[in-house]
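Incident log, structure service

09:12 report received: a user says their structure output differs between two submissions of the same chain.
09:20 pulled the input from the user's history:
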Amino acid sequence: MANDDTPQMPPAASSNMAMSMSTVPAISKKSSDLTVDSTTSKQDASKGTDVQPRPSLFKNTKATANGQSTANARRDQPSNREIALNIQRIQLAEKLGDERKQRKNLEARISSLQDEVAELSSTNKALDMQLSEERKQHETAKLSPTNKYLHLQRDEFAKQIGYERKLHAVLETRIDSLQDEIAELTSTNKALEADRSRLREEIEWTDLQLEESLITQRAKMDGDTQRAKTEEDTQERISNLEVELAEATKNFQQAILNNNLLQETSMAESQEMQKSLKELQRSTMPFNQTIVIGVDLSGSTAPFDRKIKNAYRDVLHMIKSNNSDAKVSVVVHGAVKLHPSPAKAISDTLFKHLDDIEASGTEDYKFCLEQACKVFQDNINSNRLLILIGDGEAEQSRVAALYAACQKLLLDGIKSHSIALPNGSRRRSQFDWTMERISQITGGRVEYQYTYMAAIEELLRKEREQYFRQQDEST
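09:34 re-ran on a clean worker, output below:
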């Protein structure tokens, strides 16, 4: 590993080191040979064996030269050992320097890697925080009140559309069944008319036969009388003819009685069938009807304003299914007070009338009843009905004015029926005035969460019967 921070060796030191390194192999070889020889001789001496001279040392040499070289080697031995130790020291110093450099490089590398690890850790934490924030934003956006409201509104519209389709299918099935019954009754009535005509023809034919028979009998009696030889025969014949005439007269009278009875029975059956047919027609026949719906969207209804709005839509559905020509006007009171528009036919716009209104403020039943009286004043000749929807309480600072409005409805013959949600006046109220009291004054009914649908359906059916009963009485 190259490092620019490594200190450079001076030129003199490098040249001396080169020279020393060149002498290292020869000196190392000599010292190693001497060391080996001395070690070998010592080992042989310790073992007590004869030492044999090495062939490489005694071949082609003289004894004098051998003795001289041995003496020189012994004299030079201390200086060669010092050189070897110096060289070894230099090598160790260089190795130590290299290891220090490597250690510094490794420490620098470790520090750099630690910095990278710290940077990566901080980056990872930042990414985790960003991901968590994005998830929170996504969840917040996903569960925001607007989206919740849109989802709820979409579900409500889907339920409403499904309910309208089911109701439409039920109405079509009911209409088809009624049309089949009407057709069957019409055909039965035609058959009865045909039977009555046939009986009349038979009676007329019987009358003619009796008259012809009487004429024939009389003529025969006259002839027999004329041809009779004796008065006894004539009297006997006359008696027989009188008996036959009496029998014929009796049969004729019985035939007349049977005919009258049959006519009466046919007439009664025809009248009964006409009555049933009329009742069937009246059960689906549109008629002139004006209904005002008062809806309490004050702050006290905020926890369950959805139930209030659902009850409003249920009432509209039942009114529409009972009378397709019914006209409805809506009065909303609370923080938002909506003056009613003129009574009009039920449409999709009327179903969505309360969708954007939030429950807040204080209820005002005086305002509600007075506005309803104005609507009824413009529709005097129609069947009139008031339906109140709220939480059962009717807080009112102007009690006299509220009581006067109730009396006005009572005098006009208009009943105020109440739908109290969720439990209405069944819970203890802190106010003297309640929806139940308003209905009691006007002669109306009070229904609750689990009874109002069947009750409203029954009330609408009775209003239909009362309307047509009054029409029959007036004619």
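09:41 both user submissions now match this output. Likely a transient worker issue. Closing.
09:42 reviewer note: The radius of gyration is 64 Å. The first strand starts at residue 289 and ends at 297.
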